[in-house]
Amino acid sequence: MSKTFYIETFGCQMNAHDSEKVVGTLIGQGYAQVETPEEAELVFYNTCSIRDKAEQKVFHRLQQFKRDGKGKTFAVLGCVAQQEGEKIFDKAPHVSLVCGSASYHKLPELLVQIESGSRRVTGLSLDREDAFETPLTRRDNPHRAYLTIIEGCDKSCAYCVVPFTRGPERSRTSASVIAESLELARAGYTEIQLLGQNVNSYRDPSPAGWNFATLLDRVGRTPGIRRVRFTTSHPRDFGRDIVDAIDSNQALCNHVHLPVQSGSTRVLDAMQRLYTREEYMRRIEWLKSARRSIAISTDVIVGFPGETEADFEATLALLDEVQYDSIFSFKYSRRPNTHALTLEDHIPEEEKTRRLTILQEHQRGIQIRRNAHYVDTTEECHVEGFNQATGQWIGRTSQNKTLNFLHPTARPDLVGGYVPVLVTRAGPNSLAGEAVN
Ligand code: 5AD
Ligand code: SF4
Questions:
Q1: Model pTM above 0.85
Q2: What is the DSSP string of 338-402?
Q3: What residues form DSSP beta bridges with 228?
Q4: 330 Cβ below 6 A of ligand 1
Q5: Does ligand 2 come within 6 angstroms of the Cβ of 195?
Q6: How far is the CA of 377 from the centre of ligand 1 (A)?
Q7: pLDDT tens readout for residues 355-411
């Protein structure tokens, strides 16, 4: 009988996609996936360390199995693995395998060591020169596929662990990216999401030498692929050619996620973000002057060390100026190894909470007003599922807005398809409507 494994994933889409590759690799090694950790012989946690809370989750999970995990093998993968390394064995002695994302190509080898009785095995090297590629990826979603184009990050934002947990940038060759796009289309996928910590600094290592805008455009020209998204962008490297590509290629979704982090140039400087508020706004103007209506989303951190009330207000004013379609907002969290640890004037927790609440309320108002403009328009929806409770189909527009809709006929085969929907209602976080026949 084949050995069973369970995997739970925390964190970003990069991690979700890494898990798809790890699952494929494990199945390729003869293991069988099960749905609960209780049933499994091998338990994997693919972890996130972007904020302290995310990191604590894995230790909680491991704690649960401290006594009743006998006979199981525990493995910690991902960013916490890379960051904490062998210290994990001290904190959770029942863990046998610790492996960071830059060492996943070694997993089969590490598993052999575990099988032959090794108690503590690690894969923590970051000196990988190429990205982790495997033809064995087991994708979770049958319609939308993740595709890694670049791994790692060469920036050094003062708050961020990623350069330490994912190592330096490694771009895949354009030929391998295009080959994977073709293969995905052949397998029936119609939507591709290009992934990287900083997709804009993609640089084809082969003589073709494509930049990101060229790669994006070419992936968008894959026969059968109707939608291409990408995440995440760094404003410093975000070129106008990306906006031109979106304007000239309908398959590229009209949505850009452009993390700003703060609306104060003083704070951006302390964060080592390498752009000013004005430089960021120039990119927003490119997006707003495009022929297509491009939705814009962002990430914001409140309470970075030294952030004054005036700095915070500059961020609120920036939200007004940009009119984002959505934001992800976070309280600053101290991370090991990062430069921000050495900064003075850390903001008290209650104050960070106050700023976060104000920010989120402010943005909620913006979204209510923005989304109201979609009422009476028709949007093409990529159908993701059906909600039994409400009797509505769940879809997503090219702009990445959730659009729940009714369909006059009870056709069970809408999922994965594209349906034009008339928007009849709008809320802060989603739209609702009726399918157009
Ligand atoms: N504290 C709070 N938020 C953080 N992010 C990254 N590092 C931290 C941190 N130390 C946020 C940023 C980034 C998003 C993925 O997570 O906004 O864009
Ligand atoms: Fe993703 Fe960053 Fe979290 Fe790692 S630390 S899982 S790269 S968000």
A1: yes
A2: -GGGG-S-PPPHHHHHHHHHHHHHHHHHHHHHHHHTTTT-EEEEEEEEEETTTTEEEEEETT--E
A3: 192, 252
A4: yes
A5: no
A6: 35
A7: 999 999 999 999 999 999 999 999 999 999 999 999 999 999 999 999 999 998 766
